[in-house]
Write a structure and sequence with these properties.
globular; 12 helices; mainly alpha; 68% helix
Length: 240
């Protein structure tokens, strides 16, 4: 794994532990900033953590720093994402109401300057950070794969399917592991009815991407299904 991926993975884990254990954000990122003093991705992940912890003033300060063209993240693509999250963080600081419905939340920012898939992708990226009850490696894969859904949709969907299957297996260790485990599970009566269609969509698209290198549903529908299923799994893990 390249150094920047290692740094990002450590930063994503620091965000998970910070949101759970460190509401003042003084421990885990302090260590990372000492370890990687020049890496702006550490600061970006810290900004997202502060955002979720409702420390909007400090989050805005870091979002502004990492989105700066002169001293921010080295890649323009990531600076733009930081700016996108900054816009919403400012709205939250001003106590403007945000949508409660997931589809409406995912579409925040959709206007003449942002297309719908962009908004779904990066609002999902933000939401997945708060699913801290997921197994750490599943949460990392979910966050990492959503960043590539626009450029490598087939690969991302395969990982989405794997994240869902791994979460279900962790939640239901009593079920015997077979080659068709996920197929059998979504056909069982364990899942609440409202999740069966969404989990089937992820399963089928993941299978099709593996075997045929293509997907059949729209990217926005797939993102909605994935975030919904990860949210469901996160809630189930929180009960244990």
């Amino acid at each position: 794994m390249s150094e920047w991926k290692n740094i990002w993975r450590e930063s994503i884990e620091a965000s998970r532990r910070t949101i759970i254990e460190d509401p003042k954000c003084k421990n885990f990122f302090k260590e990372l900033c000492k370890k990687y003093p020049k890496d702006k991705m550490v600061l970006f992940e810290k900004a997202i953590s502060l955002d979720w912890l409702k420390n909007y003033s400090d989050a805005i300060e870091l979002y502004e720093k990492v989105s700066s063209e002169n001293d921010g993240l080295p890649v323009e693509h990531w600076r733009d994402i930081a700016s996108f999250l900054l816009e919403r963080c400012k709205e939250k600081k001003e106590k403007r109401p945000l949508p409660n419905e997931l589809k409406e939340f995912l579409a925040i920012g959709f206007n003449g300057n942002r297309d719908l898939i962009y908004c779904y992708q990066w609002n999902a990226f933000y939401l997945l950070h708060n699913f801290t009850k997921l197994p750490a490696h599943v949460r990392y894969l979910a966050i990492s794969s959503i960043t590539r859904i626009d450029s490598e949709p087939e690969m991302s969907v395969i990982i989405f399917r794997s994240c869902m299957e791994e979460s279900f297996k962790k939640l239901h260790p009593e079920r015997k592991d077979t080659i068709s485990w996920l197929d059998e599970f979504v056909k069982s009566s364990i899942l609440p009815k409202e999740y069966i269609g969404l989990s089937n969509m992820l399963r089928k698209n993941g299978n099709k991407a593996i075997h045929h290198g293509e997907i059949e549903n729209s990217i926005d529908d797939i993102i909605f299904s994935f975030v919904t299923m990860m949210k469901y799994c996160n809630e189930e893990f929180s009960k244990r």
